[in-house]
Amino acid sequence: MTVPSQTLFDVSGRVACVTGASSGLGRAAATMLAEAGAAVVGVARRGDVLDQWKAETGGKVATVVADLSDQSAVSGVADAVSRPFGPPDILINAAGLNTRQPADDVTPEGWDATLALNLTVPFFLAQALLPAMKAKGWGRIVNFASLQSRRAFPGGIAYGASKGGVEQLTRAMAEAWSGSGVLANALAPGFFPTELTGPVFADQALAARHAGQTCIGRNGELADLAGPLLFLCSDASTFVTGQILFVDGGFTAK
Fold this sequence. Notes:
CATH superfamily: NAD(P)-binding Rossmann-like Domain
Distance between the termini: 38 Å
Oligomer: single chain
């Protein structure tokens, strides 16, 4: 059967919820989906920055101000993101935290906060939005994994543990929900310039070393995420679930 190529990556008419939409990769993902024709609800803590994103993006976009580190707020967030355009078809779990504490200095508070935002919230938010996706027989969940899902980095023991968990969470979501038409995959970005990776790019020598570790010979640019993201959010990925797509310029290939 031949499928028209122009419809494979089409997300127009879809509703997307993007957490962490105020900055970094979450903001880039929210903007890309809006520009591709989806109605997008961005979720983040900073209302003023979300308002700026909304004004700059245009199109069918809405915002929900919420602190996802408060797990008791998740059910309320699920209700709130369903109001502007209806229940989301697509969930992008991009909100994240990296305390960068060396292993000897990790505190229970830092550990708990990292795992809560990076691992616990993505599951329970997806669980809350799942019934509407199941009712439609179509849904896309895209989690954000990391190089640290498989590689150890200094000061990254809590972050790495959470992102290793995201990789397995994605497979478990796929096993549980794909039969209902709700597919779960994850993007694992390499080094991209964002607020979260600010300390990396502030050190030019370190950033250059990371670029040299890739097969391509450079670090990521936000535009590099567009194709992989649209692939996982559209009908182009109809038979793809439980997968971790490394968008890292070949960093993990060397």
